[in-house]
Each structure stands twice: as structure tokens, then as C-alpha cells.
Prior knowledge:
Distance between the termini: 62 Å
Number of strands: 13
Strand content: 25-35%
Oligomer: single chain
Amino acid sequence: MPDAPAMPMRATASNPTQAFPWALYLAEVVPEEGALPEGFAPFHGRVLFRPVQLTKEQLRQVVRIGEDPLIGPVYARPVASGGTLAELHAHPLFERALASRKTELAQHFVQSRLEAVEELRAWFRRYGLEGLLEEILEEHRQARMIYLALEGTGVPIHVREGKVWVTGDPPLEVRDLEEATRLAELYRWGRVHRVPIACRGRNEQGQPRFEVGAYLLRIPQEGPLQIPVAQPLPNKSGGITPVVFVRNGKGKLQARALPPTRTRQFQLFFLPPPR
């Protein structure tokens, strides 16, 4: 993101009424970075910023800003202008741009894209919003810690609206670091034992819900386990244990009991017994 042109005076958030000449232009197409004429800077989408205060006559003048290989000369028309930072902040186009920048900042900060964060820092500083930027970073600091805790653990995550979500149907917002630690343990358990896990949001009590690709069966406490696959397990001794079916070296189907997941805070759904 290129820096804006130098401004005659710099307004601050503490003094938004200080002189801050500005004009916003709407371009015919989204211009390429570095292709704008001197004095113009990207603002948001097709909107351009220029550090000048326009007269009524100038507000009616269209400006040529470049050349497009398909449509030829590209023009931009002025849509608003003013002389203070407060006037700029109050304009709907600025509010729209700020909302977009706040979302971008949260996304990049949570995912530790520091170069992009610094580019956005320059944008916030340019328009006297350093304090707001620090507030946004502080607000999303925990989400960043959650993302770092889950990154590379095998938990399928994505960032939306500055929050970390486990991908699923529906997705699950990770609320704190403790929950992130339990999620990492659950998915590590599934990875070690080759058991698929699918996120299913939360139940009415707020517990995370997951479907686990293992059968929940009653098995004996000791001795070998033989399972007739075509009918329910007849043995009713011992406890209910999650198992997966595997084939031994002779190609016969066997049940392999799984160790406990140690995730009592989660609601797990297992496959029904084979019949």
C-alpha cells in the first residue's frame, strides 16, 4: 500500500479540527497500485484520496488518472472534500473504508501477518487513528494467542471477523486458550489413532460438539474380543469403549479399542454398533 502524498499540516485524533485538507474521488475502475498520478493515493476500492480542499467549481471537474488497455483513458470524479479530519471521519465513504480496514487489521493481526499489519498501521496513522488501531490490536490479542496455539496442530481452523473458528458444519468459535488446548488434544488423539473427527458447532449448553469416526461398543475387560460384524455385540460385560475396525494380516476384521480422549468438556458422537 503506497504512502499518501505529504500533507501541509497533520491533524491528530486529539485535535480533529486542525487543518487537514482532503478530497475523495471515485474512479471508473479500481486503479493498480503505483499507477496513480502524483497527489493521489488509494483509499478504498474505487475511491481515491487527495490531500487538497476543492472549491465548488473543482468539485464539478473530472480528472484523468490513467490509461486502461481496454477502455482507454480512465477518469475519476470528485465526490467530497473538506478541510478538517473531523469532516473526513464523518463522511459515509470514510466510515465504509474504516470498517473494511478494521476487519483487515484484525484478520492480519490474528494470523501474525506483521507486514500487512504495518501497512495498515500507516493507513490508520495517516488519518489520525493511532489510538483506535491500538484498541483493535488489544481487543484481538487473545484471538491471536488462540490461533498461534492451534496453528500446526491439525485442528482445521480459519479466521473470520477477527475470531478463530474450527471449520465444521456449523463452525465452532474458539472462546479461550483453555478450550484451544483441549481442541488440540482431541485432534491429536484422532490423528494418532487415525480416527476422523468432524466439528458440529455447540450444543444448547455451549459444549463443543464433534462426530467421531469410531464405534461405541461394550467390550470385556480382559481377554480377546471377537465381534460378529453382522449382528450386535453379544457380550455385555465390561465398559462402553470406542473402537475402530481394522483388518489383521490375514485380512480378517478386528476391533481395536481406543484410549479415552480426556475431553469431558466436549460432546462426542460415535457411530452406532454395527448390525
